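Team,

Forwarding the record for the chain on the shared tracking sheet. I've put the sequence and predicted structure together so nobody has to dig through attachments.
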Amino acid sequence: MTTWKGKVFAIPVSCYNARLVYNKDLFREAGLDPERPPETFSEWREYAKRISQLPGKYGMAWPGAETWMTAWMPSQFIEASGLPAWFDWSTGRFEFTNMAPLFQLLLDMKADGSLFPGVTSLNNDALRAQFAAGNIGMFLAVNWDVGVLNDQFPARCDWGVALPPVIDGHERHKVRAMIEVGLYSINGQTKYPEAAWEVVKWFNSYEIRARFYEEGKLLDPDPKVREYAKKEPTAKGFAEFAQTEWDYAASWPKHPGFVQPSENPCSVFSAILARGGDLMAELQRLEDMWNAELDKFYAENPDVRREWNIYPNFDRKTGVMGDPLLPSE
């Protein structure tokens, strides 16, 4: 819940977690066990190699034309190994360099010939359409991809959902399920605020949210929604995403007035995929840039306290945030 000086400004109504979606048919054809998806980065790379030996098939795909995913799949997959990524709650600062192992793995897969070709011009819809057609073995997915593979691009293959593989030698930790606030907003320019509020209340009622849950369209952060559901979802793949014991619910501080730099880790990674470059140096440059902007924001907005978003006792293994350095007003 987002509050400011005792007033509620936003209430979370959905969350999005990350998993590895994989083609079980291609696993079988490549001599892999379709019920044993990769658990480590080295297995992930090896499985991708095996699948890519099949004619016209590729073990892995990455939507290199997209840059919006930074706060989502790349950082969520790294968190599975116990490393802070995108935003480090224990320090209250952006953390980009820890994404290097995942990006390097993708570069290695590209060198192996395991990455779907045309990666720098491949967008997420084209990727998922190719997966649905049976040409891709694995991709990083979010729970909304359940609807994509069942309805938007109905998959013509048997597919499964797995936890993110971890970096070799690392224990499994909980992964951030991104909390999003309501998709409907009311502000001072709303022409009919009372009528708009009735619409917002209807869409966010437990009865309506339960219907979204029943159809496998929504992972709701409020467990009470399931009490209103008349049936459990039967959409293929939803149950695996809904097993949220390996997730913790969080987002990252979205301060009004904070201007994000135009570059982010995904845009830099796309440039490296196309032209090469020093991956770690570029991620460090970006991390310094973003944190400098964050420092500037706090300096110019003394009413917004950095300590509200520092959780020094955050436990990455359990996902328990603990108390902030300073409770919000």
